Amino acid sequence: MKILKNRFLLGILCLAMIGKLSAQEQENPNTTPNFANQGREWFVSATNGSGQLGTKERPAKDLGNIIHHLKPNDVIRIAAGTYLSRGASGSDEINVPVTIIGGYNESFTARDPWGDHKTIFTGTNDYQKSTDPRIYIRTDQQRESNGQLSQGGTIVVDGIIVDNGPRNRYHENKGLAIRRKADPRTNQNPSPGSGGIVIVASKFTNVAVQNCIVMNTAPSEGALSVRVFQGGKGIIRNNLTINNTGYGIHARTGYTGSNPELVPKFLIANNTSLFNWKHDPIATYGGDALALDQYLTAKIENNVFGFGHMGGILNKGAKIELNNNLFTGNAKYDYIEKGAAMRVDAILDEAILVDFNSDGNETQLIEIPMAERWANIYANRVELTRESVDAAVTVSNSGANQLRSMLGLNVQGSTVEMDAEIHLPHLKLEEALPVGQNAWNGKGCFNPR
Predict the structure, then answer these.
(1) DSSP letter string over 45-78?
(2) What is the pLDDT of residues 262-317, one digit of tens each?
(3) 61-64 LR contacts (CB < 8 Å, sep 24+)
(4) In the chain, what are the domain boundaries?
(5) pTM above 0.90, yes or no
(6) Beta partners for 423?
(7) 2-372+426-436 has which fold?
(8) CA dihedral 221, 225, 230, 231 (to 10 degrees)
């Protein structure tokens, strides 16, 4: 009964952060029998773990070793350590709603997820290792005994550090620029083109990701990605996403209707999302701190969105309320919707999708406690654009081109190096941690000890 009570209280807490609960919401009548399973506690310790009992006295060694045992509503508590998954594959995929809590000491009596008891999920760059998301929870395909899709329940990820640096392939092993193709000659994998924490929930499922760090990932979409379907709610709170391609945070929806009772609702609060890179050096996409899909609503407050190679917030059609957020150092815009890019001081005047009661958003220079080594690398990067690359292409008057021209074929241009010398340089965990320790005047993440 204790596990059931803890799980129930956690679900209520997640919902309560978005709005006042009704009696109907507390009972969650949309939860189907499969996802109403009581669940059990599991314990994982890289230091003391062995076997698959997963008890507090005999914890498992890695989450990946017990995934096949997990049932809906299980709670997994993970001690400090570095985790590579089963067989050092570098990816954990879970297909039922669970709660994952990291940052414990070895006796599971204290937590300090960004301090003394860091739970680090990473991998290796060995050839043919997984390139899937490091933590991938997908429950939308689960079915009941009658064949209908399961729905309801709660998914929580709390206190996990995802560092894809060791999973990436870097040019000449210098740690300055990722490479997206494998190199079988040197037994190296491609840099994974996937996020660090990716969640795809079922209908009416509530999701919370909080107190996590995601860094050095190279997706085209979200480094921290939460997809909520109809009737579900999402909380993305007190996370640090730093040095990723694509979008630092991605609020997604699996619903395409307009019923206000079913439209997914998000709370995105006290996150810090910095140094978001374009997908590749000449890409025209990626490079935003936060992206939001259409067909959802979101309350976005007390965040720091900075140093996006494109911008701060990319809104693809969501209706949002924007309060007390800090925008800094974004290259092209702080906010964009429907093709209209704007700086923070123009949002309330020009935005169509931002609630007119929004207030307190600002821009200012802030001092970021970055390590001098990485700061120097970042400051010395050279920005490439597709226009500059296209302009550098020349067409030779070779015999082959003369023949192609006579046959009505496109002539061939010279090849131009499109790989930057610096693109998503490897940021070390000890260099990233100081950035997330303290908020800026109440904005951004803070140490969750």
Answers:
(1) -TTT--SS---SSS-BS-GGGTGGG--TT-EEEE
(2) 999 999 999 999 999 999 888 889 999 999 999 999 999 999 999 999 999 999 99
(3) 62/86, 63/92, 63/100, 64/89, 64/92
(4) 2-372+426-436
(5) no
(6) 177
(7) Pectate Lyase C-like (2.160.20)
(8) -160
